[in-house]
Here is the input.
Amino acid sequence: MKYGINLFGITKEIIGNTYIEIEMEDKTSAEQLLERLKNDYPKLKAIKSLLLAVNSEYAEKDLVIHFRDEIALIPPVSGG
Amino acid sequence: MIQIADKAIDIQACIDAAQSERAGAVDVFIGTVRNHNKQKEVVRLIFETYDSMAIKKMQELADQACEKWEIEKVVMVHRKGVLEIGDVAVVIAVSTPHRKASFEACEWLIDTLKQVVPIWKREVYQDGEEWLEAHP
Here is the structure.
């Protein structure tokens, strides 16, 4: 099964798309998914901070993610 | 009123929406696009937003402010898309019975918005472009 991930800001630029799908086991943790993304796209490691949002909430490292969740990769925010 | 706007923000409409007969003060913060940043000349800005989460986070901030201060109404409107120099990027308006709380709440809201709301600023220069805060 695949996790669908929405991309914003510099992560969109690095990965070259607004949305990607990553094949992993169901019930992967937020940390595992982040590590997988950094492994697949090493330029992500240079970003100051990188978080996952799951269902519009910042995810703790050990949060378990399900395939139906809305997932987004969140680089440092800079609104205002 | 909590919004992400894709067109120019109507500042007066924000103030009107914040006003209340119970309020003795409306404090308004207007964030505008400046023509320079860190010695570089800025030509324009592009704001990208994760709309659904940004709205949710702004609503949470408004709720938290209402717990910290005695507040009548909170208005938070942030632009997305391409903005030119001088354009209004964000408006926050807070009405309170007494003025001190309106100053404090408004400052806390813009400071915290900058830290947690998923909005990204891309600066366009004469010779390039850059996502802000992306790299150490």
Q: What stands out?
A: The longest strand of chain B covers residues 40-49. The mean pLDDT of chain B is 96. The interface with chain A takes residues 31, 47-50, 52-54, 56-57, 78, 89-90, 110, 113-122, 131-136 of chain B (CB under 8 Å).
